[in-house]
Amino acid sequence: MAQVPIVERLFTWPAAEPRLIGSRCASCSIVTFPTQSSCPRCASTEMGEHLLARRGRLWAWTIQHFAPPSPPYTGPTGDAFVPFGVGYVELPGELRVETRLTESDPERLAEGMEMELVVVPFRTDDAGNEVMTFAFRPVQGGRLESRPTRSEPKASEGPLS
Q1: 85 Cβ partners below 8 Å, 6+ apart?
Q2: Domain boundaries, position 68
Q3: What's the number of domains the chain is made of?
Q4: N or C: which end of the chain has fewer CB within 10 A?
Q5: Which tens digit of pLDDT belongs to each residue from 46-101?
Q6: Residues 27, 40: contact at Cβ < 8 Å?
Q7: 157: helix, coil or strand?
Q8: Residue 154 within any structural domain of the chain
Q9: DSSP letter string over 51-96?
């Protein structure tokens, strides 16, 4: 059985250290994912390929406890469905990526934890190929300091007078 990417040119494949393939606008420098032929900020068509960072931090997440609607979902359904984590991973200086997470135990996920890009099996296609997709997994010991929330004053701020 061969392994094939879920979509060509979504991530580097095959690669020991996969990277998501995005775009960067030559005019305003905005980064997009997936790739785009025009800039959503300035409408320029001068978009170049940009390999995104492999690591970031978990910005928000939830657990998908039921099979999503099909289409567009083409993964396992019914008794074959296994809950999975879904979240946004913030890639430093680039963007937030909506992604599947390799972890589905809510006790093992926390906002701000460090995450790393991996390629994982998604399903088997009609030809018997193992369809691979991207996901982010927690980095061992990679919990980052949590960001202050609106209700928490920053250390440099004092009480209001």
Answers
A1: 61, 62, 63, 64, 100, 101, 102, 103, 104, 109
A2: 54-140
A3: 1
A4: C
A5: 999 999 999 999 999 999 999 999 888 888 889 999 999 999 999 999 999 999 99
A6: no
A7: coil
A8: no
A9: EPPSEEEEEEEEEE-SPPPTTT--S--GGG---EEEEEEEETTTEE
Q: Which residue has the tokens 């890009």?
A: 117
Residue 37 in domain: no
Length of the chain in terms of residues written: 161
- Which residue bears the tokens 């960001």? 147
Cβ neighbours, 10 Å, residue 29? 11
Dump pLDDT digits (tens) for 5-32. Answer: 999 999 998 999 999 999 999 999 999 9
- Tell me the C-alpha distance between 80 and 15, whole Å: 29
The verdict on residue 117 lying in a domain is yes
List strands edge to edge, sheet with 47-51.
Answer: 31-32, 21-25, 47-51
